Amino acid sequence: MLAWALAIPTGAHAAGPADPLRSPMWANHAAWLLGTAPVRFDPAVVVTMPDVTENQHVFPVTVDARALPSVERIVVLMDLNPLPVAVDYAPQGAQGYVSLRIKLDQRTPVRALVLTRDGTWHVAGRWIDAAGGGCWAPPVSRVKGDWAQHLGEMRGQLWREAADTRLRVIVRHPMDTGYVDNIAAYNIETITVTGPDGTALGRMTVNGSVSEDPAFTLLLPPRVAGPVAVHMVDSNGRMFDGKVGP
Q: Rounded CA gap, 104 and 210, in Å?
């Protein structure tokens, strides 16, 4: 999983296809995230987002990479955000799919970077217009002053939809970016999901560019009937646990 490094290597990514979005930051991000691995800009990765940013603090993104074989990681990247990576998700026993809500700080490409077992990164996304400030305003719970009373409260649902078993989990957390005056960075850092028999279903590294009170939807194997265990750890070392059943 990714370590959130402050220093970005200056070396460029190995020669590969030109960025179809022509982002000024793609070469730097590719260098520190992807190294010298092969890259394909691939329509098999479907990234679903609104055309209009109604709220730059809560912007929904869904990544569906089920058309690819053996998905090992899904990284959600916002090229021009001060916190460019939202999540780094290893599906493990789950399917190559994740839905979440992020913060946007300005007009930026929003991408999914999907690693398959053969070592190839499959990339897709598009430019999204945003008014700005998504990482610089305090969360609503901070303004209300009630965040501590509800910290770590978790709600979830597990249900069958067609051939899929869907898991949706929401947790109360301010997800502070560290860019608001007098409010230090404070966010959920890791999420692990395990099946009723202890089988690992997914592990996610989370950054502060995920929206306040984060909500995640994952697709689990059809055989999983629940309950599944969800374990979260935040940047202050606090742990939050819940079980979600049908």
A: 9
Which amino acid is located at 126 in the chain?
R
Locus of tokens 């945003």: 130
CATH of the domain at 46: 2.60.40.2470
**Does residue 13 fall inside a structural domain?**
no
pLDDT above 70 for 15: no
Q: 218 burial class (0-12, 13-18, 19+ CB within 10 angstroms)?
A: buried
- The model's pLDDT over 146-204, given as tens digits with 9 standing for 90+, comes to 788 899 999 999 999 888 899 999 999 999 999 988 889 999 999 999 999 999 999 99
In the block, tokens 């599906």 appear at 91
Structure tokens given for 13: 């990514």
Q: Retrieve residue 83's tokens.
A: 């916190």
87-137 pLDDT per residue, tens: 999 999 999 999 999 999 999 999 999 999 999 999 999 999 987 776 767
Count of beta carbons in the 10 Å neighbourhood of residue 75: 24
Asked if residue 74 belongs to a domain, the reply is yes
Within-domain flag for 16 = no
- Are the C-beta atoms of 232 and 214 separated by less than 8 Å? no
- Residue 245 tokens, joined: 């059943």
Task: Decide: 219 and 109 in contact? Cβ < 8 Å.
Answer: no
3-state secondary structure of 203: strand
Per the structure, how many domains does the chain have? 1
Sign of CA dihedral 31, 35, 41, 46: negative
pLDDT at 180: 87
Residue 6 domain-assigned (yes or no): no
Q: Which domain holds residue 121?
A: 26-244
